[in-house]
Amino acid sequence: MVMKSPYLCSSLFLVLTLVPVIVSGSENSFEIQPFDEGYTHLFGDDNLVIHRDGKAVHLFLNERTGSGFVSQDLYLHGYFSASIKLPSDYTAGVVVAFYMSNGDIFEKNHDEIDFEFLGNIRGRDWRIQTNIYGNGSTSFGREERYNLWFDPTDDFHQYSILWTDSRIT
């Protein structure tokens, strides 16, 4: 499975910081790749702001659009991580996603690994959905939903995918 990674898309009132990282050598050795050397802005006009000499990206959402970007290269393995603070306002119907997919190459039978933060109504527990698809089907993967035991709107929290040659964590 070779995928572009990470696709990062968001909608409505999110503040997100992503630090693109690529595994070099072993799973304990990480090198931060500058945004303009490895990623392309997909949408959101001024809602994507590059920081820290190009090694961090902040994504913002407003009433009209979110923002997103995609890797320029394909990755066989890697460590992909996003520091995300979700909006504390009413977000029912909004999904914030951090995912990897090769859907642009295999349109009918793509593979995907993702975190999806499902919109929320004030006072209810936040839910996260994780998906792993193989050959474009949940029958070759897994889809799970969890209620979060913490408030993801209070502060930034790190969400990561470590993908080695033998496992995905």
From TrEMBL:
Keywords: Glycosidase, Hydrolase, Signal. It comes from the Eukaryota. Pfam families: Glyco_hydro_16. Gene3D superfamilies: 2.60.120.200. InterPro entries: Beta-glucanase-like (IPR000757), Beta-glucanase/XTH (IPR044791), ConA-like_dom_sf (IPR013320). Residues 21-169 form the GH16 domain. Residues 1-24 form the signal peptide. This is GH16 domain-containing protein.
